[in-house]
Every structure is written in C-alpha cells, then in structure tokens.
C-alpha cells in the first residue's frame, strides 16, 4: 500500500496527466484545481472520466482488499492473493493487484495510445482515408503487442503460483485450470438461465475451488465416518451423488431436444441379449441394462446415439494419486468396456461416455459430444458456434455447484 501511494502521490502518473494529457486535449498549458475536479467526473456528469489517482488511491486499495476478504466465509491464506490475481482460465479470479501491475499498465497504456497521443499533441484534426487507415493499423498493432505481452506475463505468473502451491493444492489447481471449469466465475448471474447462485452456494464452490475449510460443515457424516470434503463428495447416503448425476443427465436430454434431435429418451432399455457373444468379458449382458440418454439425428439424420454419464470425485484416493487427464481417460474406458461393444453390435448405434469431475472437468469423449451438440444447436437457433458452446458450458458449470452444498451439510 505504501509503495503504491508513494508512486501515486507526487509521482509520474498525475504529473503526466497535468502536464501532457490535459494540455493536449484542451490547448491550455495550465488548469486550476476546479477544472481538474470537473475532468475527473464521468462523462455523463459533465466530465471526461480522467480520474485523479491521488484522490482515488485509498479507495481503490480499500475495495481491492475488501473484495478478496469476502470471497469466502473463511479467511484466505496469504499465498492465495497471488493466485486470485490470475485470470479465471489460469485458476484465479482476475482481481489484479494494483501495486504489482501499475508500472506495466502505465507502460502498456502509453504504448497502445502513442499513435493517438502523437496526433493529439500535433493538434491534427483532419485525416484523409490513407492517414486514418494508417492510424487504425498503428493502434491495432500496439494493442496486439500489449495483449501478447500481457498473456506471456500471465502465463509466467501462473507457473510461479503453481510452483509455490502446497502439495495438497496441486490437484485443485489442476482442476480449476481445465477448460470450462472456471466459466461460472466469469458469467453474469442471469436468473432466467439459472446462472445465479446464492451466497452459500457461491462460498461453498469457492471453498472447494481454493481448498478452503467449508464453514458450518459437521465433523461427522450421518453414515458415521469423518465428514471431510473428500468423503462428503462421495458418500452415497441421502442420494446426493445420484442427484448430481441426474442433473447432468436431464440437462443433456433437454439440450438434445433443443438442438432438434428426435426420439430423445432418458434411461432407455437396451435390446435383450439373445445368444450374442462379445469379445470383452466386461460387457454388461443383463437384459434389463439401461443407459442414461438416447437420441436420433445426432451424428447423422437417422443414426442413434446412446450416452451414459459418470461424475467422479477427483479427491478420492483412487483418483487423486494419478493425473487428472489419466483419471478422466480411465473412467471413459471403464464405460466403454461395459457398453460400447454391446451398443455397436446389438443396437447398431454409437456410444459416448460423458465423464466429468465434480468440479466440472470434462473428458475427451464428452468434449467431442458437446461440441457436436453446440454445432447442431447453433444451426437450429441461428446463433454463432462460439456463443452456443459457451452457453452449454455455462449450463453444465452451474449445474454442478448447486449439487455440492447438499452433501456437505
């Protein structure tokens, strides 16, 4: 805080504003304090939005500190501050530390606006087509250069944070940096799409994301075992594990209907076995065998697809001892050994195992499935593929946090 205030108070930031920026914009070499106060107001209040960093440094520091202190019901460890300053895709929350990024942001802003500043200083007001195009190119190149540098810095910062994490947090960090697992953090809380969490659901999801102690959790599970986070996510007592599974199953069926697939059904029975033999002994040959969702028109117009959902606990001993990618692949292979051959040979259809971790990490087969689903849905609704796949990831991401609180009670 003291370093930041020394940098701001009497430092180069406000001096540059008073001596270069405002004179270039107004043509006046000196302005009085009253006019400086007017310029600091938002444009809708008659100002220019050129805030005075001397006046706002204390409040900026206070609100930054306040936001990080209230992200969880429990107190954040000190090393989490660097983690929270990372972008969400790198496992953080994008709450940047102004002390650490002030110099970079100032230098980057100077580089990105240098072409425009040059024209303002020269008081150039008229542009022909060629000079305007040249200015736009210069601004685009400067912005691109700044963004590239920023991404490199963020990647390096993520590597340093990863190396500094305690051994017990490495798996949590691996989870939160997977594609799609952080999308709920950056989404608008739109109630119409069920993208809203109450504060307890939000706290619990944050606590699980950052390996924090969950407030209000009993020390003993009703089953008699110690109610650790790992146990509460796997305990079948109360049916919460099944509820989590059913939420993803129902969402997938609804999305298939929205995408225009036909004959969508939940928990369809497979055709009975009448003497067929299979290469693998692990194939489920029960006549009452069922899968989670079936639909026609997914890969081709009359092709039928069967899917089966599995949501596993990455903190369980059998999963935590191996890399996350390996765990996802192993669960997919288990599903395939059980159903793939039967669906191919008897049903003459295709099979896709939909494997997730409880924090939202998605297996490779599920990635392919939902990308194809996004393409169908985008075509049917005349939306872009990018917006549609993001919407599907959001729907999946918000389904899982709501099912976390129940078994933790």
Strand segment tally: 4
Distance between the termini: 39 Å
Strand content: 5-15%
Overall SS class? alpha+beta
What does this structure look like?
The protein is of the alpha+beta class and 409 residues long. The protein has 16 helices and 4 strands. The protein has helices at residues 2-8, 12-26, 33-39, 53-69, 80-84, 98-121, 129-164, 170-176, 199-209, 229-232, 240-258, 317-320, 324-347, 364-381, 385-402, 405-408, and strands at residues 262-266, 293-296, 304-312, 350-357. It has a 4-stranded mixed beta sheet. Helix 2 (12-26) packs parallel to helix 6, helix 6 packs antiparallel against helix 7 and helix 11 (240-258) runs antiparallel to helix 15. The longest helix has 36 residues, at 129-164. The radius of gyration is 27 Å and the shape is elongated.
Question: Can you give me a brief rundown of this structure?
Answer:
The chain is α+β, with helices and mostly antiparallel strands. Helix content is 54%, strand content 6%.
List the helices and strands and how they pair.
Layout: H1 2-8, H2 12-26, H3 33-39, H4 53-69, H5 80-84, H6 98-121, H7 129-164, H8 170-176, H9 199-209, H10 229-232, H11 240-258, E1 262-266, E2 293-296, E3 304-312, H12 317-320, H13 324-347, E4 350-357, H14 364-381, H15 385-402, H16 405-408
Parallel strand pairs: 3-4
Antiparallel strand pairs: 1-2, 2-3
Please tag this protein with its features.
16 helices, 409 residues, disordered N terminus, 4-stranded mixed beta sheet, alpha+beta
